[in-house]
Amino acid sequence: MIIKKTALFFLLQCLLIFPFLFEIPFPRYLLEQDFPGMRIGPEPTTDSFIAVMYGDAEGSTPGNALVVDPKKPFRKLSRFGNAFLNRFMCAQLPNEVLKSISIIDSPGILSGEKQRLSRGYDFCQVLQWFAERVDRIILLFDAHKLDISDEFSEAIKSFRGQDDKIRVVLNKADQVDTQQLMRVYGALMWSLGKVINTPEVLRVYIGSFWSQPLQNTENRRLFEVEAQDLFQDIKSLPQKAAVRKLNDLIKRARLAKVHAYIISHLRKEMPSVFGKEAKKRELISRLPEIYIQLQREHHISPGDFPEVKKMQEQLETCDFSKFHSLKPKLIEAVDNMLANRIASLMSLMSQEESNMPTQMVHGGAFDGTTTGPFGHGYGEGAGEGVDEDEWVVAKDKPVYDEIFYTLSPINGKISGVNAKKEMVNSKLPNSVLGKIWKLADCDNDGMLDEEEFALAKHLIKIKLDGYELPGILPPHLVPPSHRKPLQMAE
């Protein structure tokens, strides 16, 4: 039973792509394939929400038909009316990436005079509906267009409570040089800080996430590292989908419990016959005080209460006399679920994950970053020389040999004390130098011969260049004189 639920979690998992100002072909970049309804242009060409999902054959389903399909998780969207449904569609295609994630491509944000035009539906409410159900929200920015419009600010507010899902992508960063990129990044962070009221700094990925040649290659390595981090974040979503949905269930249960306390309190305060409207207006205006009273009575955290202003707006149209009184047995059932049943469900999920293969995203642009010699880090750092017949350390060994023979070798080897005198000149901490020593001392005799010393110097250079040290010495870095004994030992 639990396995079926997990499969459903993965199926319903979504990635919300939220383009800012200019349509960026980021979904196509991930899929490496066009999809029905996609348009690319220098203006905000996408005026529709497009759900890109896996299908055996390529095709599309319009919004009105989509919301009545019981196999799709969009039935609740019917409440936004025809104005929205006419601008909503599902694109299906047989793409390997879509077997693990689905992508919701949203309309571009309007700026200037265009933002005054009505879309015909509550744009922010639709964004909020998707934001509550997706696993990741990606805000896309063009390196040349960082101004934040009023509509963008309102859209950001609809993501409140979902801050942990938000990631920011600064695209086409190759079109500016390093100095300009530094200023663009600073301007972006400053602009975001004004509209996103969180103490944490949003994670911003910098790169050129499209298939065009780089116009400025001086930051190529930075772009590759950033793309790898972003892809790793997206690739790990299937593993966390079940936990994330369970987390949302807990959040909604706690919110429902708080709503029950609020509604029952308002019902209890209402008069039986006369003065209902006046009392209703009084209770709505006193809602902040009621929140504080309920916090004290039921020991509820302030963060569990809905936003006061929004709650007041919703209560304006409600008849308080029709509200239900508090049912302690239902509250007790919710508390029991949160305290006991959720814990047992977490245990079942952990057991299932240990018995199932790791779920990762494959296909499209994700495979391009891991396969062949163009994978991230291939031929760099500890991977340098992996395809060469000659030992990669040999090119710098004459320089290392000169240092080696100044350290008083005995029988072709230097002691750890003498090696330390040279190695500490790198100013690396002892924890790193100790790891380098362990990797370089291939025969574990506590001394270094000239090849082992050259290897130690090479590993120090790798670390000083900003690369990570390998956990185990790769075969291509093993000194030639130590390779045969290692092979025999294996």
Automatic annotation (TrEMBL):
Domain EH: 396-484
Source organism superkingdom: Eukaryota
Keyword Cell membrane set for record: yes
Entries under SUPFAM superfamilies matching the protein: EF-hand, P-loop containing nucleoside triphosphate hydrolases
Domain EF-hand as annotated: residue spans: 428-463
Alphabetical keyword list: ATP-binding, Calcium, Cell membrane, Endosome, Membrane, Metal-binding, Nucleotide-binding, Phosphoprotein
Coiled-coil annotated spans: none
Record's keyword annotation contains ATP-binding: yes
Residue ranges of domain Dynamin-type G in the record: 1-238
InterPro entries (alphabetical): DUF5600 (IPR040990), Dynamin_N (IPR045063), EF-hand-dom_pair (IPR011992), EF_Hand_1_Ca_BS (IPR018247), EF_hand_dom (IPR002048), EH_dom (IPR000261), G_DYNAMIN_dom (IPR030381), P-loop_NTPase (IPR027417)
Predominant cellular place of this UniProt entry's protein: membrane
Localization per Swiss-Prot or TrEMBL: Cell membrane; Endosome membrane
Any GO MF annotation of the entry: ATP binding
Membrane topology label: Peripheral membrane protein
Any one Gene Ontology cellular component term annotated for this protein: adherens junction
Any one GO biological process: cell migration involved in sprouting angiogenesis
Alphabetical list of PANTHER family matching this protein: EH DOMAIN, EH DOMAIN-CONTAINING PROTEIN 4
Protein name in the entry: EH domain containing 4
Lineage: Eukaryota, Metazoa, Chordata, Craniata, Vertebrata
Gene: EHD4
